Amino acid sequence: METSCAFQLDVSPETLVYGFTLTDKYLIAAAQRCVVYSHDPLRPGKQADLDIGLNWEVKCHPESSLLLVATRDATGKVGLWNFENGTHIQDFIGGGMMHSVAFISKSQYASSSGGGEILLWQREKQEPTNTLHGHRAEITRLESKDSMLFSASEDGTVRIWNTTSGECVQVLEGHPENTSILTFSPDGSLLRAGGGHGQVRIWDWKNGKLKAERQSEARHTLLYVNTNDGNLLTGGIDGTIKTWTQDGELLHSFIAHEVPVRGLARAGQFLVTIGTKDGRVELWDRQSRKWLVDLQEPIGFIRNYTTGHGKLAILSKSGPGEPHNVQVWDLDLIEQFASRHVDSAL
Asked: What are 57-87's pLDDT values in tens digits?
């Protein structure tokens, strides 16, 4: 028995989709162009086509239709777009190629160069308002919270910046070079830093104190999922799912796939685990760690996924020359579907 996805589309096999993101109404697929699709059941389909060119990263503002793009351009171009109507708003030109971008607010933005500099930008201004120095190598991730900017770098540090003064207020040291994931606990007090190296470091970022450090022999994929109780879920390249407390204590683990885990999503009390080459999307009871049912038949090699606004999007491809398939699922409907299988699994 299967449940149907809320929205499905095929993307041309010639289009190399780097990544995609979800808003409350739209799915944004980033490739050589940025294509915006509505996943509203009342008016599904393509809505806008943005000629953004090759890019390193795109980010959506969480409360508006603004899109920030780090373009693969030697001049260091960062583009600001309205993804809802497809209009280009402004370019910001910095020194050297920009790899990462972040929204600080609707009108203030950050971009990072390969040399470790961070440029702050203001809408409708042509020059950067500030340049932040401190990192000694390429910056791998930018995130913002409460007007503070967080940057991870190949120099092994995570730096926290006051974007008003431009001051670096904390330097968190001891991270591997490929730290590329920065997430926060539900109450915002703890910063989790990690990546594909298997190390997870948990910081009280306001006072710069390391709360916990955990290293797994089975390296983790780039997945963090917060639970309602503040616990952290990670997925491994060995197919293992692990649950950690806010302070980094390992509570339990189980093997969900015989291949690397591509994605995780919460649907109420249930957990969605997404494999890679097995093409499986599995539903689990998170408390008992019992497999319940597959969401559907295997869907080919799963290349990417994203969650947001109560939705889960999965990008898959069945074979060479075949189109990419994107499915968008409603997590509330997945929860209802999983709940019908609990009794039979226990």
From this structure: 889 998 899 999 988 877 888 999 999 999 9
